[in-house]
Amino acid sequence: GNSVTQMEGPVTLSEEAFLTINCTYTATGYPSLFWYVQYPGEGLQLLLKATKADDKGSNKGFEATYRKETTSFHLEKGSVQVSDSAVYFCALSGNRGSTLGRLYFGRGTQLTVWP
Amino acid sequence: EAGVAQSPRYKIIEKRQSVAFWCNPISGHATLYWYQQILGQGPKLLIQFQNNGVVDDSQLPKDRFSAERLKGVDSTLKIQPAKLEDSAVYLCASSEGQGTPSYEQYFGPGTRLTVT
Q: What's the rounded mean pLDDT across residues B85-110?
């Protein structure tokens, strides 16, 4: 079946520190992979995505590369800001039959950035 | 462009009571999703509509949960009777069509339900 495992939080960093949030997945076939972000009091927002192996998704300084050989999609940012404080969710979408379009989420990782 | 609207934002009820949540998707979006997010977990799909038809309700506890999408626009999710384990945030999302990643899902702010 389809599932996502991401590193547990919370993660606390100082401003300008390097960020990595690990995400691995199990899937049938070749899923698409996503990172969503949830800022306090707001709904989930798509941060970036990758649709095939070796694709790199990027947005707002965040990057993640679809690694088929390690079934991973780790989120990275070179220099975090206080405004990046949020909960980050790794997700995959099914690509066949009844799972087409269905999102499978990890547990989420709370990131807090201190000035 | 207005986003996905949900109401109420918060609801507290006692177990065995009933409750209903409302979702208004982005105008023109054919696909609507309801997710349940229990504290400390990621969202889990409950039901997916394409226009006013159900595409996937395999994860919906049909003995107590029901959902409808009137005229292919607004949707209502109902729980009757509620149990303590239903305490969660209920998220509504919509997309132009069916099939991620071609069609991005846009999420509403959610309704936080507490069952006492």
A: 88
